[in-house]
Specification:
With 526 residues, this protein is an alpha+beta fold. The chain contains nine helices and 32 strands. It has five domains: 2-118, no CATH class; 128-254, no CATH class; 260-314, Roll (Membrane-bound Lytic Murein Transglycosylase D, Chain A); 327-368 and 377-396, Single Sheet (Resuscitation-promoting factor rpfb fold); 409-523, Distorted Sandwich (Glucose Permease (Domain IIA)). 24% of the residues lie in helices and 40% in strands. Strands 21, 24, 25, 26, 27, 28, 29, 30, 31 and 32 form a ten-stranded antiparallel beta sheet that branches. Strands 4, 7, 8, 9, 10 and 12 form a six-stranded antiparallel beta sheet that branches. Strands 11-15-18-19 form a four-stranded antiparallel beta sheet, with no helix packed on it.
């Protein structure tokens, strides 16, 4: 009986203990009580890792927000965090959730690992296709100032960044200001002497306009650097970038200011020659030929509208600058031309030889980088007058000359040769084209037939006199189709080729005479 009583007591003790523990679990901290409302126990994951269990996922969202604020407040720059929260819920009778402090600490630790990279407030400078990222506005000004300082030996101009009001986002543009004038403006404003604009500005403009009307003396000009600006549009945009994308300012200065081989194009205009283009772009003709596959050599023919590749050394950022200087120099007067409508354009006669003069000059020179673009004389005092060169020139377009046959093989050139047959000359006064008998022969240029018939050694011949005083001759013909005194046009059929006179086979002999003397026809044919 004692044994059964002991067992009963032990069973009651265990039930009492279990009941006490259950009550503690129900009312104790961290225990979720059973309520038949659905999911009431949540496992929380952040960026794929479990950070703890909570009774409400909303609590986790609040914890993530607090952690983000805390991490962001520790840096003056933008901090980007990669955050993704997921959770899985279940309905339990009771369960122990984690301390909120523990879950908060776990979330903060994970977010610190998720910081991608601190984003710095920085600036992107864009010059055409070139872009560079710099840490602050001071570095931007340092970069642009370095480009200016290459040509501003006086240290006269400084670069300033100003907001571009025409842009919707935070964009900046540049302006170059005269250091001395800016300092004077600041001193006047600080001293209250001259308010901006108003009547003082109007008086200043009137005074300057009055000064312009008066003739200035050489000592009145302010010599030296007048103005500067960038050739390209410079765009500066405020952005947020990671440190890894920012460039060292010294390297950026080197990249922007050093000369690089930049490919440009030159469009051929009327009157252009390769030599003239070479002078314009300051590149030797041979180098231009190397750049362009369309050119065989320096004598290649150019056509209006052709585009030539021109590679010139230029920096990424070019500078336009203007300088006023005083010169004492020798000078030549412009050539004076006298037009003669009875002469051909190939005829010129110098009527007066030139003589250089001497003058004092104030001139404004415009440069792009180191290259002088133009020069304008604003004041000139002639010490000794130059004597102009006077040239009389013709205005008539001279006749042109074409090959007198179609096809044919050049069988004998102009000049000395071995005698081809008995009776032939050892000095060939024209050129020969081998061609079958009966090939049409055309007038090389328009004119008047001077001779049409038999010529000793030449066989049947035609001589034509032309308006420019030249004469063409066509020999060894089989048939003559014109007569002396007849007017013919360029390209008109005048004979048929043959094998008459002293020959070694059927061909056409062709001569051009200038002032009665034979010249090489190939030098005059179009």
């Amino acid at each position: 009986m004692k044994k059964r009583t002991g067992k009963r007591f032990k069973f009651l003790y265990l039930r009492a203990t279990f009941l006490v523990l259950f009550c503690y679990a129900v009312v104790g901290k961290g225990i979720v009580t059973f309520e038949s409302t659905g999911e009431n126990y949540f496992h929380i994951w952040v960026n794929g890792q479990e950070v703890g269990t909570l009774a409400d996922p909303g609590t986790a969202e609040r914890m993530i927000l607090e952690a983000r604020k805390k991490i962001a407040s520790e840096s003056e720059e933008l901090v980007f965090l990669e955050t993704e929260m997921t959770y899985a819920g279940e309905e339990v009778l009771w369960g122990e959730v984690d301390e909120e402090e523990t879950v908060q600490a776990n979330i903060e630790a994970l977010l610190r690992k998720a910081v991608q990279e601190t984003m710095h407030r920085s600036y992107t400078v864009k010059v055409d296709e070139y872009m560079v990222n710099l840490a602050d506005a001071g570095e931007v000004e340092e970069l642009l100032q370095a480009a200016i300082d290459r040509y501003d030996s006086e240290g006269k101009f400084q670069v300033e960044l100003v907001h571009d009001n025409d842009r919707e986002f935070n964009a900046l543009t540049t302006q170059l200001v005269d250091r001395k004038e800016r300092k004077e403006e600041e001193e006047d404003v600080e001293g209250g002497l001259f308010p901006e604009g108003g009547i003082q500005e109007a008086f200043s403009r009137m005074f300057e306009a009055e000064q312009v009307k008066e003739e200035l003396d050489f000592s009145d000009y302010e010599l030296g650097l007048l103005d500067m600006d960038f050739s390209e549009d410079v765009e500066v945009v405020e952005v947020y970038l990671p440190q890894s994308q920012l460039q060292n300012v010294e390297q950026a200065i080197e990249d922007v200011t050093k000369e690089q081989e930049l490919k440009t194009f030159y469009k051929v205009e009327e009157g252009d020659t390769l030599s003239a283009i070479a002078l314009k772009v300051d590149i030797p003709m041979e180098q231009i030929v190397e750049m362009n596959d369309s050119l065989e050599d320096i004598n290649s023919i150019l056509h209006i509208g052709d585009e030539l590749v021109i590679t010139v050394p230029e920096p990424e950022l070019s500078v336009n600058w203007q300088e006023e200087n005083y010169y004492e120099e020798s000078y030549d007067a412009d050539v004076v031309y006298i037009d003669n409508d009875n002469w051909y354009t190939t005829d010129k006669v110098v009527r007066q030889q030139p003589s250089a003069g001497f003058r004092r000059v104030i001139a404004i020179s415009n440069y792009v980088n180191d290259k002088l673009v133009d020069r304008e004389i604003v004041k000139e005092e002639v010490v000794m007058e130059a004597v102009a060169k006077v040239v009389e020139r013709g205005t008539k377009i001279p006749p042109t000359y074409i090959k007198p046959i179609s096809g044919g093989r050049l069988s004998s050139g102009f000049g000395r040769r071995s005698r081809p047959t008995k009776g032939a000359s050892t000095y060939h006064k024209g050129v020969d084209w081998a061609t079958p008998v009966g090939t049409p022969v055309y007038a090389s240029s328009g004119g008047t037939v001077a001779k049409a018939g038999w010529g000793s050694g030449y066989g049947y011949v035609v001589y034509i006199n032309h308006e420019d005083g030249r004469q063409t001759r066509y020999g060894h013909l089989s048939k003559v189709l014109v007569k002396a005194g007849q007017k013919v046009k360029q390209g008109e059929r005048i004979a048929l080729s043959g094998n008459t006179g002293v020959t070694t086979g059927p061909h056409v002999h062709f001569e051009i005479l200038i002032n009665g003397k034979q010249v090489n026809p190939l030098d005059y044919l179009n």
